[in-house]
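Forum > Structural Biology > Help requests

Title: Can anyone predict the 3D structure of Monosaccharide ABC transporter substrate-binding protein, CUT2 family?

Hi all, first post here. I have the sequence for Monosaccharide ABC transporter substrate-binding protein, CUT2 family but no way to get a structure on my laptop. I'd be grateful if someone could post the structure tokens.
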Amino acid sequence: MLKKITTLASVVLLSAVTACGSGGGGGGTGSSGDTITMGFAQVGAESGWRTANTKSIQDEAKAAGIDLKFSDAQQKQENQIKAIRSYIQQKVSVIAFSPVVETGWDTVLLEAKRANIPVILTDRSIDSDDTSLYKTFLGSDFVEEGRRAGDWLVSNASGPTSVVELQGTTGAAPAIDRKKGFEEKIAAKPDIKVVASQTGDFTRSGGKQVMEAMLKSQPKIDVVYAHNDDMGLGAIEAIKAAGKVPGKDIKIITVDAVKDGMQALANGEINFIVECNPLLGKQLMDLAKKVVKGEEVPARVVTEEGTFTQEQAKAALPQRQY
Ligand code: GYE
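Reply #1:
Sure, ran it for you. Structure tokens for Monosaccharide ABC transporter substrate-binding protein, CUT2 family below:
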């Protein structure tokens, strides 16, 4: 499984359920004619992954003839809630968003439901008992990504190994799940210990800052596990500034596989990357058309992904789109 590379995202459809709700999937009252209007509340522009994700959504909305209203919440939940409320007021046909954190969405999503506007979760999920608040969730399996990172370390570590973890945004699904999957796998080797774990907020500057502090406070660091490429790239800067060689003195594992990360992997500064595919636009627009028509959609759509070693990164880089 570790060796498997998927260059193009394909889709695994899990449990198909009926798109419930009051006929027609709601919404649409404010759209002119047959044009679908989508309100999309993006997390922010915190990483290379996010930039590629935003471009995919904008390009594919255009290609699908969907009128896209797009907002950037600058990593703040309150901004996303405001954007969703404004989409409700504008009576868009469908709302899609990538929740910055997992909890605290019930109230605003209930407002959307009462306004009869269907909601699609993309990329990140929410933690709510009420699954009627959204029609479907399209995105990666973040626990599995964490497991793949842990598997690699278990097969490649020898002797006592001190790991520092750079976590994503506190409370975000990918931060919670990537930690969980990784811990699950390294538990098999008690020699591997996470000696420090802190958030770098999924940004390059955050990763650099946290790594600088860890290099000062930790007597021995063998491995960095960063929840995304950008934080790993920030950590590389800090490691170099401390006079150490990234990829050799300190091994680095990241998640995403965006171009800058893949380049660092090919150069030997990162040791292993778990892929997370940001190109969700096409699948999102297809789902949006269906929920607006009131058609059946699967409750969960999982993007299929692989992993990259240094050699595999060298081979894949020339064709990498993002
Ligand atoms: O891994 C990270 C971004 O939610 C999967 O968010 C996404 C994550 C991605 O900031 O780079």
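The CA atoms of residues 44 and 72 lie 5 Å apart. The first strand starts at residue 11 and ends at 13.
Shout if anything looks off.
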